[in-house]
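Researcher: Let's do a round of design. I'm pasting the structure tokens now; please hold your answer until I've finished.
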């Protein structure tokens, strides 16, 4: 039997006492294994290469299947046999015996790894609960690390839906997970990493031999804690998932002078398409870029008595004062706002309310030791203008050609 996408990680535990010398024969009604689908990989490659698709069009490439006899395709009552570290032999109820091909790379040697897992479970069913707890903890740690990234805007939507729909007050967590996930076995259940771990956990907790052990109860508690944390984080990050476009319209609808409203209309006409489906994220950088551009249009138009649509790129560049230290720029803009009759501390003035956000200095107190994404630096207004220039290369073409 070739791999055909099957995958099984090496177990974290070694062989049971004396278990590495004997030949094992284990009878099972069904064996849940993970398998990567070649067709899904091919489809995802097309999605990645074409601008016609979005990230929503990706399909999960890995799923949980019941191991099938390659001859008659049956999944029930399989007899597995072999030695610890040796080849896995599978015999179906129709009498077809198949040896699983071995690989030198232990990460690819799924048959050998699966046999080790089944041997461990046969001796101590709770060993599978311990393995799943380790994998859930590794996923949790990686997820918490993701929360440190500036682009993070909350847990995966599917994971959050599972957390929302799982009745964590239910005594039977396995049944609650089945209902929330809608596990499709014996048909293939394709999903993301956490969902697959939850499916494995649901199957494990459905077995009294695992559920009623100390490790089984610990797995039950770990799953509940993880889902509760996921739901709490989903709710906490709700503002970060607001579309930038929606936030800009909300700021515009707060009112203000006619020129301010016209400045927002002009900005929305310029950036509405380029911002597309961007969400606010933890920092709101793109929304603040649009707000900074709107404020620049407003300052130039109101000061010169022109319409915002008549403000030139050169006027915006002059307001940006990029020859100065970025921390000096907010004081210049604030003085202009005061000249136009705005009190920056007036909580009832929509112009002042937004300005207080734009004057915040995002320079980190200490240099980050390592980050994949460049951290924000300087006041939001100067950072925003830089971003606005990048997003509106057509409007700022003459300026960009000189830098």
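Researcher: That's everything. Go ahead.
Model: Designed sequence:
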């Amino acid at each position: 039997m070739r791999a055909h996408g099957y995958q099984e990680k090496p177990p974290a535990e070694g062989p049971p006492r004396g278990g590495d010398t004997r030949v094992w024969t284990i009878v099972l009604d069904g064996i849940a294994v993970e398998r990567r689908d070649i067709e899904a990989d091919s489809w995802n490659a097309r999605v990645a290469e074409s601008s016609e698709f979005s990230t929503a069009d990706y399909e999960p490439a890995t799923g949980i299947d019941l191991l099938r006899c390659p001859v008659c395709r049956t999944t029930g009552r399989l007899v597995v046999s072999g030695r610890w570290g040796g080849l896995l032999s599978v015999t179906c109820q129709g009498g077809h015996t198949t040896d699983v091909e071995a690989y030198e790379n232990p990460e690819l040697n799924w048959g050998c790894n699966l046999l080790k897992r089944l041997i461990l479970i046969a001796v101590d069913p709770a060993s599978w609960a311990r393995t799943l707890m380790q994998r859930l903890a590794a996923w949790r740690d990686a997820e918490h690390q993701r929360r440190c990234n500036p682009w993070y805007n909350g847990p995966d939507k599917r994971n959050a839906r599972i957390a929302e729909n799982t009745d964590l007050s239910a005594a039977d967590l396995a049944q609650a997970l089945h209902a929330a996930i809608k596990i499709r076995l014996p048909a293939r259940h394709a999903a993301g990493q956490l969902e697959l771990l939850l499916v494995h956990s649901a199957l494990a907790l459905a077995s009294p031999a695992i559920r009623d052990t100390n490790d089984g109860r610990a797995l039950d508690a770990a799953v509940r804690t993880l889902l509760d944390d996921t739901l709490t984080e989903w709710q906490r990050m709700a503002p970060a998932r607001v579309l930038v476009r929606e936030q800009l319209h909300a700021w515009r609808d707060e009112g203000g002078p006619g020129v301010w409203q016209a400045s927002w209309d002009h900005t929305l006409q310029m950036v509405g398409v380029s911002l597309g489906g961007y969400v606010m994220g933890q920092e709101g950088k793109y929304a603040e870029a649009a707000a900074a551009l709107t404020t620049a249009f407003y300052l130039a138009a109101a000061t010169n008595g022109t319409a915002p649509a008549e403000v030139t790129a050169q006027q915006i560049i002059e307001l940006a004062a990029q020859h100065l230290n970025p921390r000096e720029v907010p004081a210049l803009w604030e003085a202009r706002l005061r000249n136009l009759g705005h009190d920056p501390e007036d909580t009832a003035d929509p112009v002042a309310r937004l300005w207080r956000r734009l004057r915040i200095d995002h320079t980190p107190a200490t240099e980050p030791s390592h980050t994949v994404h460049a951290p924000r630096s300087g006041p939001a207004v100067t950072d925003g203008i830089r971003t606005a220039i990048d997003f509106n290369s057509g409007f700022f073409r003459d300026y960009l050609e000189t830098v």
